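Task: sequence in, structure out. Protein: Carbohydrate ABC transporter permease.
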Amino acid sequence: MKKDFKKWTFFDIVLVLFMVFVLIITLYPFLNILAISLNNAVDTAKGGIHIWPREFTFANYKEIFGSNDRLLQAFFMSVLRTVVGTVTGVIASTMLAYTLSRRDFVFNKQVGFLLVITMFVSGGLIPEYMLIRHLGLINEFAVYILPMLISAFNVIIIRSFMDNIPPALEESAKIDGANDFTIFWRIIVPLCLPVIATIALFLAVGQWNSWFDTYLYARSNENLTTLQFELMKILDNANISGGDVTSQNAQVIADQTNPQSIKMAITIIATVPILLVYPFLQKYFVTGLTLGAVKS
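Result:
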């Protein structure tokens, strides 16, 4: 170890110090939010909390979960829509991308052009709401799945990845008697696992963080409420009832919280579950983006 350290150059030392600095400034905001969420509300109003709580407590989290008895149902619904939406979105996007990557598909350019147009031009919120209503998706679970089923960006990324797969693999499979469906599931999908994992991460984060569609299309159905929507309502109530934190001057009752504590606790609740998924997909993430973006 000492011999290896002696071989370090000045550039190596500077690079290590720089990476440590980047690590610190990257982790500090998250650690600061976590410390405030676990600190006593009265003490938080005084300020000066950095990466460690001065008066450790779970009161902020108890206030959130105690103020809304529907959070457990909302958490289950968020997990359900994330899992179903991610799986169906990956399958639909991958199948469409495979179709567009086929050189013998007659309408390849036309369909690709229509997909690209949707990335620049949108019908707007009102036409979208009218479409959802006429399809009968208001207050239905499908409203979380169908509108996000196909994403032009995801399809283009997967298609670019598939374009790098040698055509000889498909030709040899056809010689062996495989049809298009077999080629897709036995050859294309296993080779596309890196980009599929990347798209799955995009879809999972989008589904988990989504709350506006619940507000627009499913807020009258309590069984379809999501965790993000319930946390948003709690945050709005905290802002209305709490006022400005700095004006309180630590005059908060001991068994209460303040808006800043509520915000930080909600941020942790909304962030941690999706962070637990990321390590399982990280090894595919960079590879999927890199190979999907470069065409040989």
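The longest helix spans residues 259-293.
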